[in-house]
Amino acid sequence: xVQLVESGGGLVQAGGSLRLSCxxxxxxxxxxxxxxxxxxxxxxxxxxxxxxxxxxxxxxxxVKGRFTISRDNAKNTVYLxxxxxxxxxTAVYYCNARRSVxxxxxxxxxxxxxx
Length: 115
Prior knowledge:
By secondary structure, this protein is an all-beta fold. It has no helices and eleven strands. It has strands at residues 2-7, 10-13, 18-26, 33-39, 46-52, 57-59, 67-72, 77-82, 91-99, 102-105, 109-114. Strands 2, 4, 5, 6, 9, 10 and 11 form a seven-stranded mixed beta sheet that branches. Strands 1-3-8-7 form a four-stranded antiparallel beta sheet, with no helix packed on it. The protein is globular, with a radius of gyration of 13 Å. The mean pLDDT is 96.
């Protein structure tokens, strides 16, 4: 099992920044990738960003150039730096870890961007 705990969400004005953190614990040795998803009210959960064991990254088009995913292997932590936030970024953000075909999820952290 893998446990994921997110933090760093909150309320911010449009144009502002937030940094989300996700600490992984448990059986993390064989994790292939980690990432962030988000789900806005009434919408499906969508991929925001992924970071692979190779260090390569992948971003949704809507956040490319504004968000940056990174990791600190020594701390078993993945970060999502979010800049130039927009009201449409408002959502619950979930940390995700993948091991082969098994996905693990955190409890989510709310990000609200006001006009």
